[in-house]
UniProtKB/TrEMBL annotation:
Source species, domain of life: Archaea
Name of the protein this chain belongs to: Phosphate transport system permease protein PstA
Keyword Iron applies: no
UniProt cross-references to InterPro entries, sorted A to Z: MetI-like, MetI-like_sf, Phosphate_PstA
Location in or out of the cell: Cell membrane
Keyword field: Cell membrane, Membrane, Transmembrane, Transmembrane helix, Transport
Family to which this protein belongs: Belongs to the binding-protein-dependent transport system permease family. CysTW subfamily.
Keyword Transport annotated: yes
Species classification: Archaea, Methanobacteriati, Methanobacteriota, Stenosarchaea group, Halobacteria
Length: 545
């Protein structure tokens, strides 16, 4: 009895009340550690931003103009939202960040159409995919086959349409590209990229507004605004490709969000914040130009984003490495996402849980979790042995780097997908079985839609890690500097972290203080946008649940 009194005395005071001291100390410790981490990250970002922007080189009058026209109105409006209209504040920050995120995505899409596929190649791919889908539909309607046969037919049809039989049968895509007459490049992109986006916009608006007329108007307006760029774009000094991409990738999500805010009627005043900032930027530019105030001597400018490496610091840029990172991430996503999600589905839905096979599955799951903590350099050595030595692929090409990084993030994708699938309530599975659904029908129509937000969140976070890895790229021979952007997945490339590593080794102070800081800032912005997207997806679907 005395032992019981001694053990409970640590939790209860002399008066029998529960002691909250340990809980308060634990809470204070966690809060302090979080604040310290955020402070250190903030200090690092400020340090990098100061080196990349060099604010001390600007005239004090220039900074005063920026504060008076841009910063001060934005701060005053933000404080008003915080104190009076919290909902308008959420709308304001979303409306301010959405165009920035959409512009970054538009840059990635532009890189794809400039360096990976041409408009005519995209047209051939779309037509080949439509024909392949039609062939699969015909097979499904004419023959009651099992899933294995349908999968085999799908692989064969897709191979014939995209790849063909080397040396024997050309692919359908190659036959389309060899036609003597093809539509002009703007019309090809308009018909195979803009029109599907317009149809998707019309479907979304029709579903949200429950009006066929509203959906048709939204689809027609999207296609018409993009088609206008074929003529008006060159007249305004903008290429038609840039106009089409900006209209669909930036204009569509911004327009849909604004329409949703107006139709909802809540927080409409929050849309004023981006307008106030835009008006302030224009006013600041006019005042600065008229008064002749000198701005900061920034390293991170448009020339840095569009130029290649140079021995002269002021002429050095990150564009080829940026293109290489985008192409590498495409390979990583294509290689890791289907395999990781498929493995997670098998382990959670199909793998036996008892007996000898159950023990083997448990051992596999333990090893997958352990592989997520293996140092990245080990995966670099694995990629070198697997793809370069055994696969006889050329070292330093995009597909080798992408497949190596895909091996690195594959355990993370599998584990995150398993957690998302495990989070789907069993009652929903049992309800589907009770209605006569098969195992695969239950997984496809019940489990995957419910788990997809968590799967996408984990995948995006894994891709964020992938884009910042350097050690595996060093192991597979990725070049330190590439002055020409890769034009195919079998071309030599350099990635942003690899380029930053090479800049850090140069002896000129301008490289590791100015150019390196600008590159680090670009990489951090990309990582923050990817992580922010994952957080928004998680929060959105948590509120919906």
């Amino acid at each position: 009895m005395a032992t019981t009194d001694e053990s409970t005395g640590a939790w209860f005071g002399a008066d029998g009340q529960v002691s909250q001291l340990r809980g308060l100390l634990f809470k204070a410790g966690c809060l302090g550690a979080t604040l310290l981490t955020l402070f250190l990250v903030f200090v690092f970002l400020v340090y990098v931003a100061v080196d990349a922007i060099e604010p001390g080189t600007a005239d004090p009058a220039w900074w005063a103009t920026v504060v008076a026209t841009v910063a001060l109105p934005a701060v005053v409006l933000s404080l008003y939202y915080y104190r009076s209209e919290p909902r308008a504040g959420e709308v304001a920050y979303t409306a301010l960040g959405l165009p920035v995120a959409a512009a970054l995505l538009a840059g990635g899409v532009g890189i794809v159409f400039r360096h990976i596929v041409s408009p005519h190649e995209w047209l051939a791919l779309v037509i080949a995919a439509i024909i392949a889908y039609g062939a699969l539909e015909v097979h499904g309607r004419t023959r009651d086959a099992g899933a294995l046969e349908r999968g085999a037919v799908g692989v064969v049809v897709l191979g014939l349409t995209i790849v063909g039989v080397p040396g024997l049968v050309p692919s359908l895509r190659a036959l389309i590209l060899s036609l003597p007459v093809l539509p002009m490049a703007p019309l090809s992109l308009l018909g195979t990229f803009v029109v599907p986006v317009g149809i998707a916009v019309g479907w979304y608006v029709r579903r949200a507004r429950e009006s066929q007329r509203a959906g048709s108007i939204a689809a027609g307006a999207t296609i018409a605004a993009a088609a206008l760029g074929v003529v008006a774009g060159p007249l305004a000094g903008v290429s038609w490709t840039t106009w089409l991409i900006l209209t669909t990738v930036v204009g569509v999500p911004v327009g849909l969000y604004v329409e949703r805010v107006f139709s909802g009627g809540e927080g409409v005043s929050g849309l004023a914040l981006p307008l106030v900032i835009a008006a302030g930027v224009v006013a600041c530019a006019v005042v600065v130009d008229a008064a002749g105030f000198a701005g900061p001597n920034v390293w991170l400018d448009w020339e840095f984003l569009t130029a290649a490496h140079s021995r002269t610091p002021r002429e050095a840029g990150i564009y080829p490495a940026l293109v290489g990172s985008v192409m590498m991430i495409i390979v990583v996503a294509i290689a890791a996402f289907p395999v990781g999600v498929g493995a997670a589905i098998y382990l959670e839905e199909y793998a036996p849980s008892g007996g000898l096979l159950g023990s083997v599955v448990e051992l596999i799951e333990i090893n997958i979790a352990n592989l997520a903590g293996v140092p990245s350099v080990v995966y670099g050595l694995l990629g070198l042995a697997l793809f370069v030595k055994a696969g006889a692929l050329q070292p330093g090409i995009v597909i080798v780097g992408g497949l190596t990084i895909a091996l690195l993030i594959l355990p993370i994708v599998i584990v995150s997908a398993q957690e998302a699938i495990r989070g789907v309530p069993d009652s929903q599975r049992q309800a589907a079985y009770g209605m006569g659904a098969t195992k695969w029908q239950t997984v496809r129509t019940v489990v995957l839609p419910r788990a997809m937000p968590g799967i996408l969140t984990g995948t995006i976070l894994a891709l964020g890690r992938a884009i910042g890895e350097t050690a595996p790229l060093l192991m597979v021979g990725v070049a330190a500097v590439v002055r020409i952007s890769p034009t195919s997945f079998f071309g030599l490339f350099s990635a942003m972290p690899r380029q930053l590593y090479s800049w850090a080794q140069l002896a000129k102070p301008d490289f590791y203080h100015g150019v390196l800081a600008a590159g680090v800032l670009v990489l951090l912005i990309v990582l923050l946008m990817m992580n922010g997207t994952a957080i928004l997806l998680r929060n959105k679907y948590q509120r919906r649940d």
